[in-house]
């Protein structure tokens, strides 16, 4: 039976994925982090973003409603945030030659 993966990200957006096999949640977490962390250049400011806290849960869509799934993902995200090493954003004026 397909399970639904629900991912809550600290910036309040959600990803949903149907999964027919056992999910490798740590692999999914790393793939998402690779897409969002990094250096960003915004006008005259260079920004290093270390990534977001992610809450990933697997639910059965036939027995779990959307609100319950999102609530469970939010709880997982805040648990990760509580235990995650704090890495600050780093922003500085761009040094363009």
From TrEMBL:
Phylogenetic lineage: Bacteria, Pseudomonadati, Pseudomonadota, Gammaproteobacteria, Enterobacterales
InterPro entries: GGDEF_dom (IPR000160), Nucleotide_cyclase (IPR029787), Rev_trsase/Diguanyl_cyclase (IPR043128)
Protein name as it appears in the record: Putative signal transduction protein
Enzyme Commission code: 2.7.7.65
Domain GGDEF: 21-86
Single GO term (MF): diguanylate cyclase activity
SUPFAM superfamilies named among the record's database cross-references: Nucleotide cyclase
Entry keywords, A to Z: Nucleotidyltransferase, Transferase
Gene encoding the protein: yeaP_1
Species, as recorded: Escherichia coli
